[in-house]
Amino acid sequence: MARNIFGGTAADSAETESGGRLPNLKGRVYLTEEAPNEVKDLLDMAGTELKDGLLTDERGMIPQFQGPDSVEQLWVDFNAGRVMLTPNDVGNRLASHVGSFDPHGSKGYTDSRLDGFLAKDGNEVNLPSNKRWLGLTPPTTGPSGDTIYQSNGASTYNFALRQNGSATFYQHTNTHIPLEIRAGSKANGAQVNANAFVINGNDFANGKGSFKVNWEGSIETGGDIATRGSVTVGGTVSAANIGSARVFSGTTDPKAQGIDLRPGDVWVTYGT
């Protein structure tokens, strides 16, 4: 804090009860109206100690002086009772305070609190290792399909994430891809992630799932029991290396199932 300036105004004079001025008179200065001890820590405007105490000038006026550090009120007695003096630099100090960049420290406090918060646009989130930016905790009661996140779109939503772990992509036009997965590339010798899409069991076996789409487009199915690894196709199977041929497999002749084989069709029999 700084010293405040007292005296020097038209109201700062030493007078008798009848209004007569008291020139060249010493006054006793106190911190309060009842304080027993005089204040000695007084400076003139040049910063020099008032060794002789507070004296009125030849007109009986109290000259400007500097009070003790951070004191806002002083009481002075010129043998007619104590009267209060207030600083004459309040207006200047207020103007300086208002014009200061961050007078209350609120900006600094706000900046520190907002550090790491996200603006509405143009966000970049730098995450340390093994940390997550956002965790969505669904309620413990209610239907398992409750939506915990939804992005609004032209028709109800564009994307929804539900409490049961499912996600739904809603395509509103014919010019957008509902889901696109990029598995990387071989550019600059970068290691390619072999799996673009994997369905795992409960063990989440590091990408060794029962259904995989590899980065180059091949599809694999697998499993460690007989019921896994099968592929069921309804309708026509078309591929560059089989043309329009149909492939049948199993223990029963397709004819027995009411299917007329066409030229190019293949039946692979197995089992008994």
Please specify the SSE layout and strand pairing:
Elements: E1 3-6, E2 26-30, E3 54-55, E4 65-69, E5 74-77, E6 82-85, H1 90-99, H2 106-114, E7 147-151, E8 159-162, E9 167-169, E10 195-199, E11 211-214, E12 219-221, E13 247-250, E14 266-269
Parallel strand pairs: 13-14
Antiparallel strand pairs: 1-4, 2-3, 2-5, 5-6, 7-8, 8-9, 10-11, 11-12
Summing up helix and strand content along with how strands pair, one would put the structural category as: mainly beta
Helix and strand sequence: EEEEEEHHEEEEEEEE
State the low-pLDDT regions, or none. Answer: none
Count the beta strands: 14
* Strand content range: 15-25%
Whole-number mean pLDDT: 81
Distance linking N and C termini:
100 Å
Helix content: under 10%
Tell me, what's the shape? Answer: rod-shaped
**Rg from C-alpha positions?**
45 Å
Q: What kind of sheet is the major sheet? A: 4 strands, antiparallel
- Strand order in the sheet with the most strands: 3-2-5-6
Secondary structure tally, helices: 2
Account of the protein in words:
This protein has 272 residues and is mostly beta strands. It has helices at 90-99, 106-114; strands spanning 3-6, 26-30, 54-55, 65-69, 74-77, 82-85, 147-151, 159-162, 167-169, 195-199, 211-214, 219-221, 247-250, 266-269. The strands form 5 sheets. The protein has a 4-stranded antiparallel β-sheet, with no helix packed on it. A 3-stranded antiparallel β-sheet has the order 7-8-9, with no helix packed on it. The protein is rod-shaped and about 135 Å long.
Label this structure with key terms.
21% strand, 272 residues, rod-shaped, mainly beta, three-stranded antiparallel β-sheet
